[in-house]
Amino acid sequence: MSMENRKLSIRLMDNEVWWGGDITYGDQMPFGRETIEIDLAAGIRGNQAAPLLVSSKGRYVWADAPIRYRFEDGLLTVVSDSGEPVLRGEGGNLRQAFLSASAEHFPATGTLPDARFFSVPQYNLWIELQYEPTQEKTLRYAEAVLANGLPPGVIMIDDNWMEDYGVWRFRSDRFPDPKAMTDRLHELGFQVMLWTCPFVSPDNAANFRMLESKGYLLRDERGETAIRRWWNGYSAVLDCTNSDAVAWYQEELQRLMDDYGIDGFKLDAGDPEYYRASDRSAVPMHPNGHCEAWAAVGRRYAFNEYRACWKMGGQPLVQRLRDRQHSWDLNGLASLIPNGLAQGLAGYAYICPDMIGGGQIGDVENNPSFRIDQELFVRYAQCSALFPMMQFSTAPWRVLDREHLAYCVEAAKLHAELGDTFLALAQHASTTGEPIMRHMAYVFPDCGLEDVTDQFMVGDRLLVAPVVEEGARRRVIRFPAGEWLGDDGSRVQGPCALEADAPLSRLPHYRLVEE
């Protein structure tokens, strides 16, 4: 290893591979065998990221600032423009590398999101209601959940419930009596979350003038209030490095909790791409740092959800994968497992895949040719069921026939049945930082499982092998040493690779038999 000008050059050991950085590259992990270069200062592609790389040989790299890293010809090069990257560990395995890094750089807080996240599904209304949520539609959706045999859970009212961006009051034309709505949802067994973001509409004159006059808004390099283009237009941005601005925002959210019984919030956006290195803020900050500051806002809410996050490993935050398409490929279903594994190895234990069937609004908005693939929808539900959390949006009872709907209901019930298992692992993660959803190589080192990215472990004893290929009714499963009891009653003696039956009705999963 050599070091100069905040640069590390690391010669890879024999058969050493690495994970980490931007979790969107999960499908290309582990790194080390092919040339790849990633710049975390240039953006994090809408997901979670950390200046962390962990190795199958017990080593890790950490920096307190964004890094650029390159794997080429057996050499790992890591560069940071501010702060010095460090290499730690020598000899060991992936689990040892991760636990060492976690304990030193992003220790678990001892707290976790609300326990109900791990035992009931989430129902986000984004794809089903798009930009037109109403009180009536929300209640109708919740009642349909129960009528179709799905368990009640966490319901999220998405964008456009409020008067404007930065004006966090219910639109009276859409929600005439939000307290009555929330009371009814609670009676039905749901918890209620609202979508929110750090953007402030400059067209809402009174609110904008107030926030600008108090210095709560981000300023550009000229000292003018920064106006940024995002997916809903042009907005100012709350300066989350300003403690008074954060206090104002949290007071607005607390009012919603106090007045209407809202349980928590989906805190969207905050991506580094909406900030500039030249921006002026209360505390000077790299764009990734602004993302981190936005994520810190949500730590006070037991019901929370984030998508974009920087360097927040070990925190009690729910992390959802960015919007995925309704497709079988790496833009959709095939990405869930590799990216979910990467989330855990970046320190994010409390993870949720994207909405079942896909959460990409472009698939359905103003697209008359869009059609639901019922097989894909079922496989999405099955793949999500044994993640720590699962989330519906598109109403399965509306788009599926009776047979396919039944398979989705079974998946949701399986998740609920394993709620105690997920909660126990979440409590463990809150003190150790360990992932709940674990890479095969994390649990079974030195077994040649580093490249397995279409199956995973829940804890150390439950092996999950969803079907993620179109039309497949069988799939190959890699079993480590030991006796494995399948959901279908079969017993498998590992180590071996076995082609197992996987009809559309089945989510293959196996438990390691106690010796």
Automatic annotation (TrEMBL):
Q: Which organism is it from?
A: Cohnella phaseoli
Recorded protein name is Glycosyl hydrolase family 31
Similarity annotation: Belongs to the glycosyl hydrolase 31 family.
Instruction: State the superkingdom.
Output: Bacteria
- Gene3D superfamilies documented for this protein: Glycosidases, Golgi alpha-mannosidase II
Q: Residues in domain Glycoside hydrolase family 31 TIM barrel?
A: 130-395
Pfam families annotated for this entry?
A: Glyco_hydro_31_2nd, Glyco_hydro_31_3rd
**What PANTHER family has UniProt attached to this entry?**
GLYCOSIDASE FAMILY 31, MYOGENESIS-REGULATING GLYCOSIDASE
As one GO molecular function, the record gives: hydrolase activity, hydrolyzing O-glycosyl compounds
Keywords, A to Z? Answer: Glycosidase, Hydrolase
Stretches assigned to the Glycosyl hydrolase family 31 C-terminal domain: 433-510
